[in-house]
Structure formats: structure tokens, C-alpha cells
Amino acid sequence: MNSTKVWYVTGASQGLGLTLVKKLLDNGHRVAATSRNAQTLKQAVGLIDTDRFLPLAVDLSNPDCIEESIRETLKAFGQIDVLVNNAGYGMAGTVEEIEGQKIRDIFNVNVLAAIDVTKAVLPVMRGQGSGYVINIGSVAGFVGAPGWSVYSATKAAIAAFSEVLALDVKEFGIKVTVVEPSGFRTGFLTTGSLAFTESNIEGYQAVKNAQQRYLAADGKQPGDPEKASEIIMSLIDMDEPPLHLYLGEDAYKRASEKLRIMTAELEKWKEFTISADFKS
């Protein structure tokens, strides 16, 4: 592992972000980590080492605040080698019962904040002639479950953003990966990382059943955040890392089945698809 790397990690005070930051510091990396409260972040990480750890209080809805945090990181470490856009939260409920403002709020955090942070970091990476953007998505962005339509939409947006961003920045020596986990034991469902709207509409049984299953599974998810963090760390040493990295056996199975279904559907409707063109 190259200990000279400087990582900038958003949403680092809990969950996968916190596990990753601790693992990075244990392995000698330098880390600038963001949270809404720097003191909470310090306490969660449990390491006060200004030579290698820079906790930052950042309002990710404020581009000026993001820019200032980038300047602080460069002042402390002189470079930014890896950006991890991890900040985000979940949302479960039927789309007709979730308040409109709450829908806009989750897009602001899960999508727009990641784009704004990437915009702020890319000039640094272009100047260096190297860099790595790692966006934390979800298998739900490709294969959603009932009741998770809004959350899935945010993660699908992150996946699409990552795909095209990779094409845009390849010439500058910058790599991009979107990490798409299934269920991991990070407290995602019970530590304030989930906005849950219980359905009071008769019906929506698939949504209600799925919500019960997810809530009952908290703390029993098969995904190990320690192993996920080690895998993410290993990406930076790869000459050709994956663009999409699904994490967890459940993520693999769900993505594989979706690809099979999509391929069959694409071929079934091929004649309709190509008939939309002008005749040559």
C-alpha cells in the first residue's frame, strides 16, 4: 500500500465512511474527512494526529464551504489523490406519501453534493495529472426493492454520473469507480441514515412487506464493512480498476439476474427498437 496517498472522504462520522477512514489511518494514509460536526468526527475516529488526519466540518449543500475544505486539505497535505463521495442517506416509503421537500433534500445530499465535491476536486487532480474518484452508490441504483424508489433514483443518478465522468476525465489520468454495495452492517437502518415513511394507504403490500424485511434484517446484514473498506483501499493500486464494483453476494446475484432479464427484454423488443429509425 502506498502510504503517500491523500484521501478526501465525505460523510465520515458513521457507517462505511467511518470504517474506511479508520482503516486508511491504520494503514498510514493521510485523510481529510468531512462531517457536519468536526468534534463528533474526531470522537468517532478516536485519533488526534494533525500530521495525517484532518477532520473538517463541511456543509455539503454549500459550494463555498466545500471549496474552503479543499483549500484546507491542500494547505495541510499539498495534494488530493483519492476522493470518496460517501455522504448520503436512505429513504423508504411510497412515492405518493413522501413529502416533496424530503425528496428534494435527499437528491441534494445523495447526488448534488457528490457532484459539487467532485467539481471542486477535479481541478486539483487535473493539475496533478492523476487522481481517483470513488463514488459510493448502491445495488439499489440498478436493482431496486419495493418502497425504495426515491433512494434508488439517487443511486442510479450516481452510477450514471460516474460512467460519463470516467469518459470525461480519462485523458487527465483520473480514474473513476462507483461502488455499489448490498446490505452491510453499518447501522444504515437505525442510526439516522434512513428516512422512513410508513404507508397508511390500503394496499401497497409489496412495499409494506419489503419494509418489514429490511427493518428486521438490521444488524444481520451479510456485508462486512471492514472487508468492504479493505477492498476499496485496494482499488488504488490497480492499473485498470472496475468502473462498477458491486459488493456483497446479494449485490452480485441481484445485478446478474437484472442483466439477464434486461438482455432478454432487449432482444425480445429488438424489432420495435430499430424500427424507430429513418429508413436508409
Name some characteristics of this structure.
alpha/beta, 280 residues, seven-stranded parallel β-sheet, two-stranded parallel sheet, Rossmann fold
Q: Can you walk through the features of this model?
A:
GO terms for molecular function: oxidoreductase activity. Keywords: Oxidoreductase. It holds the Pfam family adh_short. The chain is 48% helix and 15% strand. The longest helix has 29 residues, at 100-128. It is built from 9 helices and 9 strands. It starts with 5 loop residues before the first strand and ends in a 6-residue tail after the last helix. It has one domain: Rossmann fold. Strands 3-2-1-4-6-7-9 form a 7-stranded parallel β-sheet, sandwiched between helices. A two-stranded parallel ribbon has the order 5-8. It is globular and about 60 Å long. With 280 residues, the protein is α/β, with parallel strands linked by helices. The protein has helices at 15-26, 38-45, 63-77, 100-128, 149-169, 205-216, 225-235, 249-268, 270-274, and strands at 6-9, 30-35, 53-57, 82-85, 90-92, 131-136, 174-181, 194-196, 244-247. Helix 1 crosses helix 7 (225-235) and helix 4 (100-128) packs parallel to helix 5 (149-169). The relative contact order is 0.13.
